[in-house]
Design a protein that fits this description.
Elements (H helix, E strand, L loop, with lengths): L1 H11 L8 E2 L3 E8 L2 E9 L10 E8 L8 E7 L2 E6 L2 E6 L15 E6 L9 E8 L11 E8 L6 H28 L2 H20 L1 H4 L6 H28 L4 H13 L7 H25 L5 H17 L1 H42 L5 E6 L2 E6 L3 E7 L2 E6 L4 E4 L3 H7 L4 E5 L2 E4 L3 E7 L2 E6 L5 E3 L4 H8 L12
Helix pairs in contact: 1-9, 2-3, 2-9, 3-5, 3-9, 5-6, 5-7, 6-7, 7-8, 8-9
């Protein structure tokens, strides 16, 4: 686990920080004239470019490049765009307009090539026409990047590859925990299945911007999904830690996590929402883990160490949490837990085999195998055995019942002669019978406690003979 976590810090320094050179921009009043854009009343943009719910004209001036490498204008954000360079139209991404009806939504990312002949020795003017009427949600910073840079620009290959590896690892862990849950039906394995699956799905959604050139209105759905998945992981993390180390406070901690993590939806900016959802989840999960360390619960100490490291990296490098380090940290948690669970299941199986061996020498008891383990049940305490698909239900004295992983036919051969099959799905313990009674055109076998059992017509003669009861024509049955 420590190798994976240290790899997170190392890979943080390998990623490409920017795709293109940012430019100082001015917002203007603009219109398209015969010779290109006509701008007036230009003022510097001191904060950020925001075309949401309006039509926006912006311009910037830059010098000529020092080399002859091809250059492009890179525009990424929630907007349709149209670009000019020194009065020459570079192209359009969708079609910006003054209203939603006039606008045709473009892609979230667009690249406009700049011909080498278009550059001038002195100043060069870039003009952008933007609008955003189909974003769906209001973004705190709608434009991720607008700038000019070399082409092809440096791709973020290493972070993307690492994210894919982490996603594959998390999917494999989800499958492993799902298989464990199918065999053992434990609550912790189900939670870990969901945690690994949610983290893997978020890694896939996070990579969509690099892999697919989607339309900008879909960006709101993508960012909403990223926050929702991060919030789900955070809540599941708290639920797992509480279930594992402080079960008495599980409902309280899970409810607290739902409230606090859910409140991050009110924060500005989806990156901030996502980062704080994960930070709050890890912080709340650290409380039951710390309690487990105090009570010396096995596994609490490494879990707490992982959570502390998670919080340290999240608070120290928040800009990398949602994009890269979170997926590595999630994989670093679920993989060791999967290995521990596999080892524990092996020990449980060996213990079950030993219990079955010991039970073979106890003919007065029935060895009941279920998802939770093995229990030796005194045969005298069994009222009836009722078939339930591939399982049987053992109805016991005192109102208790157990599910036994056995078939009714096989179990009938194991039980002593005091047990008789009275229905195709029922075996009754005759030593616990009170009476046989008519119920309309049907018969019911009343036991010393519990609900009466159905009796089929074909099995009535054998039952009457075993109970030493005359047939109906010879005796009256009590109403």
């Amino acid at each position: 686990m420590w190798r994976i976590l240290l790899l997170t810090v190392f890979l943080t320094g390998l990623a490409t920080p920017v795709l293109a050179q940012d430019l100082p921009w001015q917002a203007c009043r603009g219109a398209i004239g015969p010779a290109g854009p006509v701008l007036s009343d230009c003022r510097p943009i001191r904060d950020f470019i925001d075309p949401q719910g309006r039509e926006l004209w912006i311009r910037s001036t830059l010098g000529a490049p020092a080399d002859t490498r091809p250059r492009v204008l890179y525009v990424g954000g929630v907007a349709s765009s149209e670009a000019w360079f020194n009065g020459q139209r570079l192209g359009a991404n969708g079609q910006p307009g003054a209203t939603a009806r006039a606008e045709s939504p473009g892609r979230y990312q667009a690249i406009f090539p700049i011909r080498e002949s278009a550059w001038r020795p002195g100043g060069n003017m870039v003009v952008l026409h933007l609008s955003s009427f189909h974003g769906g949600l209001h973004f705190a910073r709608p434009m991720s990047a607008i700038g000019i840079g070399p082409y092809p620009y440096a791709q973020q290959i290493v972070p993307l590859a690492v994210t894919f590896v982490a996603a594959g690892t998390l999917l494999a862990a989800a499958f492993g925990f799902g298989a464990i849950h199918a065999m053992r039906r434990t609550g912790s394995s189900l939670i870990l299945t969901a945690m690994a699956g949610v983290a893997a799905l978020q890694a896939i959604v996070e990579s969509l911007r690099t892999l697919f050139d989607y339309s900008y209105p879909l960006h709101a759905w993508r960012m909403s999904a990223i926050w929702a998945l991060a919030a789900a992981f955070a809540i599941l993390l708290v639920s797992y830690a509480s279930t594992r180390f402080l079960p008495k406070a599980r409902r309280l901690m899970t409810g607290l996590a739902i409230g606090m993590v859910g409140a991050t939806v009110l924060l500005p900016g989806f990156d901030l929402k996502t980062v704080w959802a994960l930070i709050l989840g890890a912080g709340l999960a650290a409380l039951p883990a710390a309690a487990g360390v105090r009570m010396r619960v096995p596994g609490a100490q490494p879990t707490l160490a992982w959570l502390v490291l998670f919080l340290t990296l999240a608070l120290g490098f928040p800009e990398w949490l949602a994009d890269l380090s979170y997926f590595l940290l999630a994989a670093g948690l679920v993989l060791p837990l999967l290995m521990v669970e596999v080892v524990r299941l092996g020990r449980d199986d060996r213990g079950r085999e030993a219990a079955l061996t010991r039970a073979a020498s106890r003919p007065d008891r029935l060895t009941v195998a279920s998802a939770r383990g093995v229990e030796l049940v005194p045969i005298a305490e069994i009222l009836a055995v009722v078939g339930a698909d591939d399982y049987v239900e053992l109805r016991l004295v005192g109102g208790r019942s157990l599910l036994h992983a056995a078939r009714l036919d096989g179990l009938a051969a194991q039980l002593p002669a005091s047990f008789l099959r009275v229905h195709r799905s029922v075996i009754a313990n005759l030593s616990q019978v009170q009476r046989l009674e008519r119920d309309g055109d049907r018969w019911r076998l009343h036991m010393r406690e519990g609900a009466p059992l159905p009796v089929s017509r074909s099995r009535q003669p054998a039952l009457r003979e075993a109970m030493d009861v005359p047939p109906p024509a010879m005796t009256a049955v009590a109403p």
